[in-house]
Here is the input.
Amino acid sequence: MKILKFGLWTLMGVALVGCDENAFDQKADAVRDTTQNSAENVRDASQMKAEETRDDSQQAAENTREMSANQADGGYNSAELKADQLEKQGEQRADNLEVTGEQNADYLEDRGEAKADALEEVEVE
Here is the structure.
C-alpha cells in the first residue's frame, strides 16, 4: 500500500511539475501581452486620427457652404460641389489612416507572435 501511495504521489508530482511554465514560456506570454497592448494602442491612435480627419473635413465643408450662403452672387452650386469634394477627400484620408493603422497593428502582432514562438521553442533541460 505504501508503494502504491508513493507511486501516486510521484505521478502527481511529475504531472504538476510538467504543467509549470518555464521562464521562456512566461517570457513568451509577456511578449504576447505587450504586443497586443501595443497593437491596440496603434489601432486606437489611428482611429482617433481618422475621426479627427473626418471632423475637420466636415467642418471645412460646412464653412464652405456657409460662405456661399452669405454671398449674393448665387455661387451655391459650385460651393456645394466644393464642400462635397472636401468631405470626400477627408473621408478618403480617414479611411487610409485606418487601413495604415490596422496594417501597422497587424505587423506588430505578427512580429510579437514570432518572437514569442521562438521563445517557446527554447528547450529547457
Observations:
- The chain has a mean pLDDT of 84.
- The chain has one domain: 23-120.
